[in-house]
C-alpha cells in the first residue's frame, strides 16, 4: 500500500515538473528560437543556399546567436534587426573599401597588408568608443568588428575576392536577420498577446506602495506593531528596487514600436510620482528598529526617547489627547490615499489592456466615462480628507499647550508628538502627490477616449542611442532635469589621478603668471587678494593688456619676455583653458580608454594574419582560424574588470561545453546534413532554457556559437587532414585564447577594478550630499528669496546626481562580487554604505519639502547660532567620511558631535515656540506641525550620520590617540558627549 502511494506521489510530482517544463517551451520566444535555429541549420545544409555564403556560410548560425537572437516582442526584434543590419552594412562597406585599396597595392605586398591592418585597427577603435558610449549600439559595433575581422584577414590584396567576399557576408547577415524576424512573426500568429510590461510594472509598483503604506499606518497613532522590523525593511527595499526598475523599463519601452490607443508618454508622470511617494514613506513613515544606545553621545531632550529608527523596549509616555485627536483624520486621509492608488491602478490596467482591435468609439467612450467617474470620486474623497486633516493640525496643539502649562513651563514635549507630526506631514505630501496622479489619470482617460488605435514609433535621437537604463528621470514638477554633462548616466570617474590640478589651483597658477605684468594704465596689480582679482580680471584676461619688457631687442630677456607675453595673452589663455579641458576629458574618458583597449587587443591578436605569406605566424593563423580568438576577445571585453571576469569564465565554460557536444555530434552524424540539423536543433533546447530562465546567459551563447565551425565547416569544405577531435580542440583553444586575452587586458594591463571605482564614487557621492545639505541650508538662511526657480533646479539636479550615483554604486557592488581577489571584500559593509547614503538622501528630500512651511522666525532667525553649529557638524562629518573613502585613511578619533549640536538646537527651538505660544495661544497653527516634523527628520539625520561614521570606521579604522590604555582615557571618553565631541574609536573597542 505504501509503495503504491509513493509511486502515486512520485508520478504526480513528475507530471507537475513535466508540465512546468512544457510551459517554459510552449511560449512565443522559446519556440521562435528553436525555429530560427532549425531554419538557419537548413539553409547551411542546403547546397543551393550555402553556396551564396561561400566558405563562410556556417557563420549564419554564429551571427544569429551572437547578434540577431529572437526577442520578446516584435518592436524589440525590429529594433535589433535594423540597428544590427546597419552595423553590418557599415562593417561590410568600410572593409570593402579597405580591401579595394589593398588590391591596388598588389597581392601580398607590404602596402596591402598595412592598409587592411590600419583599417581594422581604426574600425575596432571607433567601435569600442561607440560600444562604451552608446548602449543601444553594442551589438551593432560588435557585428561591424566581427565582419571586418573575417574580411580583412583573408585574401588580402586579391582583386577577385573584394566583392565576392563582401557579397557572402551580406547574404549571411540578411539570412540570419530575416530568419529570426520570420520565426518571431510565425510564433506571434500562434501565441497572440502583448508582452510589453511597463504599464504592468507601474500597476505592480502602486500595489506595493499600498502594501507599504498599509503596514506603516501604526505610525500615525504612535502604536507598537507585532510585525517584525525585517519585514518592513524588506518591503521598503522592494519598493526602492521597483522604483528603479520602473525607470529602467520606461527608458527601454519609451523607444519601442507599439500599437494601441495610448503612448507610454501618457503615463510617464507616474514614474516621478511613484518615486516621490516612496520618498515620503522613507522619511515620514519608515519602519522602527530596536534601540542601540551609543555611549558618550546624549539623546535629545525628549524624555530620553529614541528616534524614528529606534524604539525603546520600556514603557513610553503617551500623550493620549494628542494621539486621540490626530489619529482619526490621519487614518481617514491614509485610506483616501489608498483608494486613490487603487483607482489609478485600475485605470492603467483598463486603458492599456483593453482590447483595441475592433473596439468602437462608443465602447471606448463608455470605458473612459466609467474611469473618469471613479477618478472624480477619488479626488473628492481625497480633498475632503486632506482639508479635514489640515484643519485638525491647525488646532491640535492648543490642547497640548494647556497640558504643558499644567505640568510646568519647561516640560519637554513627548516623542509621540514628533513621531505623529512627521507622519501627518508625510501623509499630506502623499495626498498632494496622489492629487497629481489622479489628474494624470483623468488625462489618460481623456486621451483613451479621443485617440484612435495607431502605430507608435520611436524617435531616433542621441538619447535613444546613448541613454542606458537610468534610475530617475523627473523632478517634482515632472520636468526632465539632466545631470552634469546633459546625461543621466553620469560616468563613474576614477579619482586616482592626483596629477590633475583642481580648479582653484589652476586659477591661482594663471593669476601668478599674469601678475608678472602690469595693466595698460601702468597700475600694478596688488599682491593681496589674488583670488578675487583673478576672478575679476585674470579668469579670461579680458581686461588685461600685457606689455613687452623694456630690455634690448637682441637680449635673451627681451625674447623670453616677448614669448611670455604671447603665452599669456587673452586669446592664448582662452586656447590653453580650452585645450586643458579637452585634454582632461580625453585623458580620463572611459569611452576612449575602452576604444583603445579594443584596438590594442585586435591589433595584437590579428597581427599574424598580416605577416608575409609563407611565414609561420600567418600559416598558423590561417590553419587555426585565429579570427575566433579575436572575436572572443571583443565579446568578452567589458567596461570594467568584474564584468569581464564574469563574462570570461562563463564563456570559457560554455566554449568547452559546446566543443565537447560538437565532437560527440560529429562522431554520431559525421557530415550527414539531416543529422547535423537535428543535433544542432536538439542542442538549442537546453541553450534556450539557460538563456531564458537563468542568469548565466554568457555560458549558453558561446556554447551555441562553438558548434557551427566544428560541425558545418567540414561539411562545407572537407579537410581530410583534420579529424573531428582536432577541430574541436583547435576551436576551443582559439576561443579560449581570446577570452584569456580579454581577462589579461582588463585585469593586468588596463585594470578598472570595481572596488576602486566604488570607493572613489562613494567619496564623490558623499561630497554631493554635503553640497546638497549646504544648498538646503543656504536657501533657508536667505532673507530675500529671489531666483527661487534657479535654486530649486540646482537642488533637484543635485538630488538627481546623487540618486544616479547610488544606482551605479549598487551595480558596482554586484559586479564586484565576480572580481578575483586574494582577500575577501567587505561587500556587506559596502551595501550598508549605499543604504545609509540612500537614507540620508531621502531625509534631505524630506527636509527640503518640510522647510518650505516652517515658521522662520522661531525656528531659523532666533536660533541662528545653534543652526549654524548643527550645519557645521553635519558638513564636517560628511567631509570626514568623504576623505576616508577617497584617501583610504582612518577617521580622526574625535569629531564635533551632531547629536550634541542637535540637542542644543532642539532645546532652543522649543523654547522659542513656547514663548511665541505664550504671547498668542493660537500662533503658528499648521506651521508648528511642520516645525516639529523638521526636528524629527533632523533627529533621523543625526542617527543616520552616526550609522555612516560607524560603517566608515569599520572599513578604514580610527586614528586614535586616546585609548583605554591611557590613564585618563576612561574619564575622557565618558565625558566626551557632554562636551560636544563624538568618538569614532568606540567600534574598535567592542
Assign an overall shape. globular
The helix content is over 70%
What is the assembly state of the chains in this entry?
A: single chain
Query: What is the radius of gyration computed over CA atoms, rounded to a whole number of angstroms?
Result: 34 Å
Ranges where pLDDT stays below 50 over 5 or more residues in a row are: 291-301, 303-318, 467-499, 514-548, 967-978
What is the structural class? mainly alpha
Topology at a glance:
Blueprint: H1 2-25, H2 28-45, H3 47-53, H4 59-66, H5 74-105, H6 110-133, H7 138-152, H8 162-190, H9 198-215, H10 229-253, E1 258-260, H11 269-284, H12 320-353, H13 361-407, H14 415-450, E2 454-456, H15 462-466, H16 503-514, H17 530-538, H18 556-567, H19 570-587, H20 590-606, H21 616-624, H22 627-636, H23 641-669, H24 673-693, H25 697-711, H26 713-716, H27 724-749, H28 754-781, H29 788-816, H30 827-850, H31 856-859, H32 864-887, E3 891-892, E4 894-896, H33 898-919, H34 926-956, E5 958-959, H35 969-975, E6 981-983, H36 986-989
Parallel strand pairs: 3-5
Antiparallel strand pairs: 1-2, 4-6
Helix pairs in contact: 2-8, 2-24, 4-8, 4-25, 5-6, 5-7, 5-8, 6-7, 6-20, 7-22, 9-10, 9-11, 9-12, 10-11, 11-14, 11-30, 12-13, 12-14, 13-14, 13-34, 14-34, 16-17, 20-22, 22-27, 23-24, 23-25, 23-27, 24-25, 25-27, 28-29, 28-30, 28-32, 29-30, 30-34, 32-33, 32-34, 33-34
